[in-house]
Every structure is written in structure tokens, then in C-alpha cells.
Amino acid sequence: MADSSPEVKKYFFKKTNLAKQGEFSMNADMFRLLMAVDEKKEIFQIAKELNMNNTALKDSLSKLLKLNLVERINKTEEVKEEPKIEPKTYIDAKFFDILRKTLIENIGPMGDFLIEDVQNEMKLNLAEVSIEQAAEFVSNLAREVPDKDARLKFQKSMINEINKQTK
Q: Distance of CA 150 to CAs 1, 33, 64, 100, 153, Å?
């Protein structure tokens, strides 16, 4: 019996060099997607892992492309099966030391209280924070930084730190 399942074209993206970027701001979905982009994974697989619906994926990916934070790779595959979801990767504890130091440099001693508040709000166990949760955590913290320049500096610095964790 012939297999009549439709073939699905897969699209792959990779992160660009963030050091070349100017100022930008992102919403939580954009931030989560940026942190999850992996040139070895197809974009719909990434969205599935993030529990991101097609509308949020299209909107976030479009904005990331316009900001030149990601670019499409001319690597396509024809597949006939569901992609496998890989186990979650957790953030290293050193990341939270850097996050705390960076936030305090940008907003002062209130950074400690802010970290604790957002951690409790998100019900995070800092020993088991996935890359995606870390991206959301940073995004939530950044929203609380009142000064735009400090917020952008914090976000950009933490994006680079999360990227280091994914390599």
C-alpha cells in the first residue's frame, strides 16, 4: 500500500550576530523564539516545543526577521513524520549570578527584589529552568526596568548570556 501522507516542507533559521545590532525591544514570544532558534531544528518543531500557536509564531518570526536577529537557512527537507521533541536543556546556575549582577548594574539594589518577585510569579525553581523559561524570565524582568536604555542594555546582555548556554 502506498503512503499517501502529504509531504511537509521544513524551514530552518539561525540566529545572526547580535553584536552588530542596534537598539531593539522584544515581547515575550519574540524573546522565547529567539532563544529557541536552532539551525538544526525546523521552525514548526521549535514552535511546538514552545507551545506557540501559528499566529504567535508568524508574528514573532516576522519581527525577528525584520530586526535581522534571525535569518532563514536554505536548508529544506521533505519529511513524512512528526518531529521528535528533544528533552529540555536547563540553564546553568552561573547564569543567574550574571543575571542578578547585570540587573543590579542597570537598576540598582531593587534588582534583588525584582528577581524574587518575578521568580515567585512564574513559580520557578532556579535549579530547573529551561532555556525557554529563562528567556521568558528575562523578558518579564526587562518589562520592570523603567529606563528604556537600561532595559535594552539588560535585554541584550542577557540574550548573549542565554546564547552562550545553548552552545
A: 62, 22, 21, 14, 5
Q: Is 80 exposed, middle or buried (0-12, 13-18, 19+ CB in 10 A)?
A: exposed
CB 76 within 8 A of CB 9: yes
The neighbouring-strand residues paired with 12 are 42, 73
Q: Nearest Cα to 29, choosing from 45, 10, 51?
A: 51
d(CA 125, CA 114): 16
| The pLDDT of residue 80 | 42
* Set of cell numbers at residue 26: 522584544
- Report the alpha-carbon distance of residue 64 to residue 33 in Å, rounded: 9
* Cell 546553568, located at residue: 92
What's the count of helices (H) and strands (E) in the chain, helices before strands?
Answer: 7, 4
Mean pLDDT (whole number) for 124-142: 86
Q: Which three cell numbers stand for residue 144?
A: 520592570
In our burial notation (b when 16+ CB lie closer than 10 A, e otherwise), range 7-43 reads eeebebbebbeeeeeeebebebbbbbbbbbbbeebbb
Taking the model in full, what pTM does it have? 0.57
pLDDT at 14 over 70: yes
